Amino acid sequence: MSDWLHALPVVWMGLVIFGTTYLISAVIYVIVIIFATGRRAQSFRAVTPGLLSPLGVIFGLFVVFTAVQVWNDNDRAKAAIDREASALRAVVVFASAFPGEPEQRMRALVRQHIQEMATQEWPMMERQTATISIAPRHLFEALQVALALVPGNPGQQAAEREIVAQIEAALDARRQRIIICRAQVHPFKWICLLAQAIIVLLAIAVVHSDDRLAAIIALAIFATAVASCVLLIAAYDRPFVGQLSLTPRPLLQVMPESGGLN
Fold first, then answer.
1. Distance (Å, rounded) from C-alpha 262 to C-alpha 256?
2. What is the pLDDT of residues 187-212, one digit of tens each?
3. Cα dist. 89→92, 93, 170, 221 in Å?
4. How far apart are CA 107 and CA 145, in angstroms?
5. What is the residue-wise DSSP string for the chain?
6. Hey, which of 106, 114, 203, 230 would disulfide with 95, CB 3.0 to 4.6 Å?
7. Is 151 buried (19+), middle (13-18) or exposed (0-12) by CB count in 10 A?
8. Other CB atoms closer than 10 Å to residue 161's CB: what's the count?
């Protein structure tokens, strides 16, 4: 689905989707009514209403299969952000075992990393241009600082191991986040879903071609259902794009202050 549509506020996205769906339904209705004359009208009336049930079930399955992917992508993206935030918070906590310059350096690097993610990497993920080839320099520098620490007691030794492990966990979560930012419903899935919706709308118009009011009511009801499903999927299709996209708020919440622990 088009990039400009995903970037719209939900209200405007809804207006576009509902308006387009109703327009397609109206075109289908007009075409069917034009052709429902003479012998063709008898053929249209011969189409059994029982055809609508399996067609509706097929459309429902298409919606479910598409929605499952969208929900999974969003859940994975949210989990990656939460893991990254948790790991960075743990780094700050364990860094307190090395008071003085090492702790302040570690806190500053974590803070700079979060600021860079929120101000630079997040817009890149929205544009789907972020790649794992771009190294998070502040986090790598924090890893180097952690590896250069000289523990003076068993507690500091354990803290150093945890700092290294948590930085690696944050790096892995970031990689997962960037990979997921490119996730979206494949255009072929959209084509199949929308094609099935048009087929059902056409079948409804044909089945009710002898009663125009019934045809209008049935088309309006199903068109509303179709538009609602498409809007719901489209609004969450890309985890980091649009009004309902995931934000760096969890990372900002664990951002250490410039001095002293939170």
1. 6
2. 999 999 999 999 999 999 999 988 88
3. 5, 6, 10, 50
4. 11
5. --HHHHTS-HHHHHHHHHHHHHHHHHHHHHHHHHH-SHHHHHHHHHS-GGGHHHHHHHHHHHHHHHHHHHHHHHHHHHHHHHHHHHHHHHHHHHHTTSTTHHHHHHHHHHHHHHHHIIIIIHHHHHTT---TTS--HHHHHHHHHHHT----SHHHHHHHHHHHHHHHHHHHHHHHHHHHTT----HHHHHHHHHHHHHHHHHHHHHTTT-HHHHHHHHHHHHHHHHHHHHHHHHHSSTTSSTT---SHHHHHTPPPSSS--
6. 106
7. middle
8. 13
Residues 166 and 170: their CA atoms lie apart, in Å, by 6
pTM of the model: 0.85
Task: Spell out the residues 6+ positions from residue 127 whose beta carbon is closer than 8 angstroms to its own.
Answer: none
The type of residue at 134 is: I
Residue 90: pLDDT over 70: yes
- Rounded to 5 degrees, what angle do the CA atoms 35, 36, 40 make? 90
State the Cα–Cα distance between residues 106 and 121, nearest whole angstrom: 21
**Residues 210-254 pLDDT 10s:** 888 999 999 999 999 999 999 999 999 999 998 889 999 999 999
